[in-house]
Write a structure and sequence with these properties.
Helix content is 17%, strand content 31%. The chain is globular.
Length: 715
């Protein structure tokens, strides 16, 4: 359940620290591995040591590495004490060791609300951070001077708030090489975002483009000018518009995409004469389209390297040179644009196999950052059984070096592998799932069948990929087979998969989960009588549907920030979401102002299925959630209690739609471990650190207070 602005150049995207907590809370691209037919599963082996919760789920040492545009300095989001800090490192220039990083000191840290992202300005003079309070998503853009960093106590390095607009949302669209920043902000009108150029030295703003009321995405050139925009009409038609020939001339519409066309405006080439988009018009999968900005005519299509999956992210230098493409197939990988580049990268990775960063078929390789000229690229390399590390690839030398292991204290030999599979839904639609088979034998099932957890991703316009996930490893280590389903509506799998979700919230999308369970019972030795469902955001909605409409199939459920009632969910969306709704929620779920759509969303909401509810439920919610309001969780809990069903609410007053604080994540995962142990019989850690217990008790107490019945006479 989120929206993003997707520019062309990868450096334009402000990277959030990669998720280290439960990926099913939210969120937020080599070849797909297809495993056909039945698989002969090895029997679980005993004994497997119980890996500590704190080891698997505490914040990793490092969560992002951003290289300066010149390639001389790294900004690393690194754990310092109990919270992440932006730490600077100087990059060595040795002939045999490209990294040789030398720690310079801490540039920024907030011990109240953990910082989750950092990037460099285009000229490398400033560090830029988007920061909110308590998860409310009211981001402010902060500036830090890296030249003031002289040690561990932020000597002289202070953060300046460049967008002190109360209640506004700020997005960083571009950081041109010449300096400054291009931002989008809705401080003029909370319903829409205008485009501004921000002078990073003086903090002055100048408006570049005014939103007429329906623009959802702006196309920014590498130089920092506005070359186009996409807008959504009330009927769901998307219009691509470009500026007129004179500054005061009206914008012209050059392309129209109906709701059935998946179309994303990505950005513009230098000079703004060519727009870059991703579209599936006339295609089964999405591809890159290069459009004439004056006519909207597609000059050329670029065939994706993603081998039957939708095109991912086009990676270019600041000068517009295409370096490659990031794909999300069965796993995430980077594909260089040339055969020479591909051969060179694979050769470099093979040299690293002895360090655990080799390029096996299911090893993810995610592009993290790069220099302005594209000569040095930072990757994050990981696999299901390897928490991974960051590596620098030097394109001129054709070599890669590693640094900054994510979780060096984890014994990878004790982790469970994840496999990718295709399966057919009951109506014949081809879907995929990820299966992580536990190596622990849990007693209580006939024929050595094992309990399972169906972990449903959020969005729903996202998907699960093979790679390291601490929460999955925690569940597998406790004795559960983890099933992650790319149900209809999941992205990247082509037109048929995503369009199959139209009108199917609470219906066929949930049937897909049941079909994945049936496949796992036949092929992976899963016990159909011991399956629980958990998920966040849309996944939380799916968990609530599972515990109402499909209660006969699930022994228990865990709902993170899931909507209970679709009508009130959509009516409470933030004002800034309104332009997006006709092509997303209105198309797939319905417009609550239309009687037929309102009747359907009421009928399929978990609220309407309460008479079928049975089984225990754990509800987790952030009290500052701007997307799914806290009242959704309170209605769930009160409805369960009215039916005398077991339910517990954990309410985090310092979190929003996704959880960012380590203390909250550890406490929630402790609750999940104990809850599943009670209802599925898996292993439970005997003791945890006292701080985890105290935080969990506080979350539970806050939930009890919020869900308590109002006293008589209270208004």
């Amino acid at each position: 359940m989120h929206r993003t602005l997707l520019p062309l150049v990868v450096q334009m995207v402000l990277p959030l620290a990669r998720p280290w907590h439960a990926s099913w809370i939210i969120v937020p691209l080599l070849a797909a591995l297809s495993v056909r037919g039945a698989t002969a599963w090895a029997q679980p082996r005993d004994p497997v040591p119980l890996l500590p919760l704190e080891q698997l789920m505490a914040r990793p040492r490092v969560t992002t590495v951003q290289i300066n545009p010149t390639g001389q300095t790294l900004a690393v989001l690194e754990k310092v004490g109990s919270h992440p800090a932006v730490v600077l490192y100087a990059v060595g220039q040795g002939a045999t060791n490209t990294w040789a990083p030398t720690r310079l000191g801490v540039a920024f840290q907030d011990t109240v609300r953990s910082v989750s992202n950092v990037r460099w300005s285009g000229d490398g003079r400033w560090l830029l951070i988007l920061h909110d309070r308590g998860g409310d998503e009211g981001y402010h853009l902060l500036r830090v001077d890296p030249r003031a960093v002289t040690g561990e106590r932020q000597s002289g390095a202070t953060a300046t708030d460049l967008t002190p607009f109360p209640g506004a949302e700020v997005e960083l669209l571009a950081t041109p090489a010449g300096g400054g920043a291009i931002i989008a902000s809705n401080h003029r009108d909370p319903r829409v975002s205008d485009v501004y150029v921000l002078d990073l030295d003086r903090g002055a703003l100048r408006r570049l483009a005014t939103n007429p009321g329906d623009v959802t995405v702006w196309a920014i050139t590498p130089e920092g000018s506005v070359a186009g925009a996409s807008a959504v009409r009330p009927d769901g038609m998307l219009e691509v518009r470009t500026p007129g020939p004179a500054p005061d001339a009206p914008w012209q519409t050059v392309y129209r995409a109906p709701p059935s066309e998946r179309f994303t405006l990505l950005g513009a080439e230098r000079g703004g004469r060519v727009l870059v988009a991703r579209s599936n018009v006339g295609r089964a999968t999405e591809a890159f389209a290069f459009m004439d900005a004056s006519s909207g005519r597609v000059r050329r299509w670029r065939v994706s390297s993603c081998r039957g999956f939708d095109a991912g992210t086009l990676v270019t230098t600041a000068a517009g040179e295409v370096l490659g493409e990031s794909c999300a197939t069965s796993h995430r990988t980077f594909v260089p644009a040339t055969a020479r580049g591909q051969k060179q990268l694979q050769a470099a990775l093979r040299r690293l196999e002895g360090t655990g960063t080799g390029a096996d078929v299911l090893r993810a390789l995610e592009l993290e950052s790069m220099t302005a000229n594209g000569e040095r690229l930072v990757f994050y390399s990981h696999a299901a059984t390897d928490p991974g590390r960051f590596l620098l690839y030097d394109t001129q030398r054709g070599v890669a070096d590693t640094a900054f292991a994510m979780r060096p204290d984890i014994d990878r030999a004790q982790l469970a592998p994840t496999t990718f599979h295709w399966f057919r839904a009951r109506d014949g639609l081809r879907l995929s799932l990820l299966l992580t088979r536990s190596r622990v034998r849990v007693p209580g099932s006939a024929n050595a069948r094992q309990p399972a957890v169906v972990a449903v991703h959020g969005g729903p316009w996202s998907r699960d990929e093979v790679g390291y996930a601490g929460e999955t490893q925690l569940l597998a280590n406790r004795g559960y087979t983890v099933i992650q389903v790319n149900f209809r509506g999941s992205t990247g799998l082509g037109r048929a998969t995503v369009d199959g979700a139209v009108g199917e919230f609470g219906q066929r999308m949930s049937d897909d989960l049941l079909d994945a369970i049936a496949w796992s019972v036949r092929n992976a030795n899963v016990d159909p009588a011991r399956v629980c469902i958990l998920g966040g955001s849309y996944g939380g909605f799916a968990a609530l549907v599972g515990m109402t409409r499909d209660a006969a199939h699930y022994r228990c459920g865990i709902d993170y920030a899931g909507p209970f009632d679709l009508e009130t969910l959509i009516r409470a969306f933030p004002p800034s979401w309104q332009p997006f709704l006709p092509r997303s929620w209105y198309r797939f779920v319905g417009n609550p102002d239309q009687p037929a759509a309102l009747e359907r969303m009421r009928r399929v909401s978990p609220l309407a299925q309460l008479e079928k509810a049975r089984g225990p439920l754990l509800v987790v919610h952030g009290d500052n959630d701007p997307r799914v309001r806290t009242d959704q969780a309170l209605r769930v809990v009160r409805s369960w209690r009215a039916r005398s069903l077991p339910v517990s609410l954990l309410l985090a007053g310092n979190e929003g739609h996704s959880f960012n604080e380590e203390s909250t994540s550890l406490a929630v995962n402790r609750a999940v471990e104990r809850f599943l142990g009670d209802w599925l019989g898996g292993r439970v850690q005997s003791t945890v650190a006292p701080d985890i217990t105290r935080t969990l008790e506080a979350l539970r107490a806050a939930g009890e207070r919020a869900a308590a019945p109002a006293p008589p006479g209270a208004r």
